[in-house]
């Protein structure tokens, strides 16, 4: 039945990998074994793979167990969001942003809403600003839980119950968000000039309960993982991102902070009410996998601090500009602007060009994972395959943002 | 004439018991592990097929049997079929020297302990056969790595068995169990030896933190990639049966085998049924420990794995053997000597290993330069 | 030297004046967009030199490329470069106008390595050809896709939907 089997024609990425092998062989770097032309094999870590987070395809050139070269192939989740923006009114487009970096969609909404508000000159109400910060920091915690959980799962796929503990605690955050916005992941909550719903009764108490009980959980995670000699051996010193890499490739977020650069848009380019809040920028200095993990854990604690301060400082007042609901159709004056926002993965921003009509003329995303993924070939080469999986897990990719 | 027939009948009975134990244990262990893994991860686990999900393994076995059985065209025809068959031999044959209870021992080989180690290398052989027969470069590499791991960890296991033999004074396993009457369990006399044996057995089973050969399926093939359906099922069942078999061996050697209170209370044709109960209970305590360890620690990398065996376990094992031998020879009340030495060495290892390793890691990290442009 | 985030004590207007003066040959129409972005225009043939000089400037070295966007202004195609200066913690947005018939500009991927994928995306979506780019292939769409979707005159072709 299976006698007739055709090898499919290699596609561009694989052809590129093969070409590079030929070039390196021509340069004399081929095989060191007599009788073999070259050592390297091109293997496809296909779009469906348990270790690549999302539909990412890595065309890996392997020499035995050592990774020589990685060519990431993306676009499997491309949904033409930028083109869709040109046919939706500004207001109609808000739900689509949640789906960009779906793990922490509210931050993406915020970037867009900030840009449109800047273009149109709308100032959100003060109560809404605080609520925005609370929801964004809650989703930052949820996003880091996913990132750290899946990363530890990568280190031993079938095992450590860490993933399940973290997802269980993420449920608490999602319950809070569901009570507030009606949805667990695709919120459609921010509006130009405020937010859609006010806090329901008792929500502040529930949030305070969460803030009170969560630090113990973080300590539990740290106890399970930080002190574990096997974990330390597998993560320390691996996948170092140097500061030159951060500058060259535009790496932002926890990946940059783990390399000793205090780049946090909430501090360096403050927006909303962050100037009034007191929190630290978590910086680590070795730039390896372990430090990226530590930065995320510490950031969860900082987020809790922020949430608590916001709950204390929450003013009364309306949550939307104007006495009635926020306008459905706005027509910002012609012009363009870019606003970057501190997404859990880095700087997420939207560049909006408006021509005065109801629809955006051009909407361009600046996605942090897109920029972080460019570093992959440099970062993964020279490591063993098992390390490569750990390193790619620590960069925290979400394909929704990369492919848009 | 009748004797010969009875002898054959007895032999067949024990072989049947051995196979039944292997298959039942495998199915029970799969269910047990999934439930225990779920419990550790704050989940439920299979609880639908059958009451409390006990028929889940049976359903999985049926599914596996129903799959298409094919062989890759390039695979070696004889070895490809032989590998899954061979892999079970180790698990079955070991039971022939294990005393399940008083009166239920297939054969009292006078080199029982050595037989254990010798037969357990059948699994290694089967894995190598499987990797080679697949005609897949990455399967071969995975199989070689698995074989290297298993061979390396056989040495600490052998050293532990040697100590047991020294303490008991005989290589026969029923003598080993008899020595442990009145709660004089060897595990109490030589806890560090048990620890060494236990760690080595986790590595032998390719389980827990030592399962790099299996996880190669992250990208490259493990030794069992080209196998599907019941062929793969044999590898899979053997791994889970091995949990029970290895625990049974550990219980026999270190925890008194079938000994326990009320031995002999219920007896059927000379077979002590209470003994069977204690044997199974103690084995499953150790199985639970194996499952627990698997889901609590991340996986060791290949170089950490081999380094741990050769640079830590084997030197410590050799030192342990020398010390035990010295104590038995020269200390007049050697049982007390062993007791003291055993617990001191156990606590020393457990207490010092982690801090020393962490200190080395910390020093390495401080030496590593801080990232700068 | 470790990288840190600097500050701009002189203020945006002074910065804009400095840029206008120092890069008078390459950058035109220097404007300030509050709170911390300077928007300039640049001619395509001068872009590469401007990029190298902007990056190497000791006072306002724009060392990091944030993103590159291709925009189809109906009169022509525009490439927008957004770069960041660590020393002053400000952004610079460079608009480059290209012709519709031949939207070509020199690549800046040897000046800012991050430009590699951003230029590929601009090629993929808008059709801007970056001369000298090491590997200008489509990045988000299929290799055999026909057309550049983010152009205003893009029509969805049947060749692009073979499965339907």
Notable traits:
heterotrimer; A: 404 residues; alpha+beta; Cytochrome-c3 Hydrogenase, chain B; 47% helix; C: 164 residues; Beta Polymerase, domain 2; five-stranded mixed beta sheet; two-stranded parallel ribbon; 7 strands
Architecture overview:
The complex is a heterotrimer of chains A (404), B (373) and C (164). Chain A has helices spanning 12-26, 81-85, 94-98, 105-120, 126-155, 162-181, 203-225, 229-235, 243-249, 254-257, 265-268, 289-313, 368-373, 376-380, 385-395, 399-403, and strands spanning 41-45, 57-63, 66-73, 190-191, 194-195, 335-343, 346-354, 360-366. Chain A is α+β, with helices and mostly antiparallel strands and 404 residues long. In chain A, the strands form three sheets. In chain A, strands 1-2-3 form a three-stranded antiparallel sheet. A three-stranded antiparallel sheet of chain A has the order 6-7-8. In chain A, strands 4-5 form a two-stranded antiparallel ribbon. In chain A, strand 7 (346-354) and strand 8 (360-366) form a beta hairpin. In chain A, helix 4 (105-120) runs antiparallel to helix 5 and helix 5 runs antiparallel to helix 6 (162-181). The radius of gyration of chain A is 23 Å and the shape is globular. Chain B contains 13 helices and two strands, in the order H-H-H-H-H-H-H-H-H-H-E-E-H-H-H. The longest helix of chain B has 39 residues, at 2-40. Chain C is of the alpha/beta class and 164 residues long. Chain C contains three helices and seven strands. The N and C termini of chain C lie far apart (56 Å). The A-B interface holds A 2-3, 41, 43, 45, 50-51, 60, 62, 64-65, 152, 155-161, 163-165, 168, 224, 227-234, 236-237, 240-244, 247, 259-260, 285-287, 384-386, 389 and B 37, 40-43, 70, 73, 137, 141, 209, 212, 215, 218-220, 294-302, 304, 354, 357-358, 361, 364-365, 368, 370-373.
